[in-house]
């Protein structure tokens, strides 16, 4: 049985994580991941037969890996000022492309002025996102795609499109690395999308993949992403309450503008946030003791979290509502995936 000291030591190691220094610990964590404490076996999806989908479990996991590359780079830069190590971005020997992409850093840097508690939280999220990358790469083995080109400067144009700022670059541009509050808004851009993406991809996993444990592993990653999203949404709401009103804390309104933009980009579901059929829930503050706030993105009728299709996710990360788009936004050269083009 683990002693209390060993559990505390493990928790402290997660929170003191720094880029580069976490590689050995993260590798150890990967070995321990998977259902029932065992490794998730390498993906061995059989080739599709007549009437089967034209994609495999490998394709589904590789699409998830593309999103994890993006999240890991964002959080690592925010926490430490540096991104993934090259050993975590190179393609497997059987990947279609043998080239790893580059990161357009833009204003990405360690977020300044953090309290010790805030720094620990950023460290933990960065550690977990890096470990997601390593876990998926281990599961995919030689089939793991390399990191695509990632553009962390796209926050500026996205904020202009959302109506948060009027400047895409330079003075006055939105910069999620400039303060903790702006970081929360930047995180809000990703986290709800990550949660809904894993939920939406679950039905794509084959029966063989379910038996092999891929669905269980994906559900576990979804849970961690949901914890991250819950922290971000609760922090934005709580800081607005502490400020006294939504008007006194403009970052809440900025997050809601992001939600509205995401709704317009996802052609397959473009209902306005917090309306019937929408997969976006606006952050609101309670105006009385009997009125609830809205910190959970879920269907109000059954309290079940929302899902997004692969296509809807692509529209958001590419920053385009158009059909037939193969690249753009946070992925200037597209994702390394068979699901690389918007289709609806």
From TrEMBL:
- Protein name (Swiss-Prot/TrEMBL): Ferritin-like domain-containing protein
| PROSITE patterns the record matches | PROKAR_LIPOPROTEIN (PS51257), TAT (PS51318)
Native organism is Granulicella mallensis (strain ATCC BAA-1857 / DSM 23137 / MP5ACTX8)
Record's Pfam families? Ferritin_2
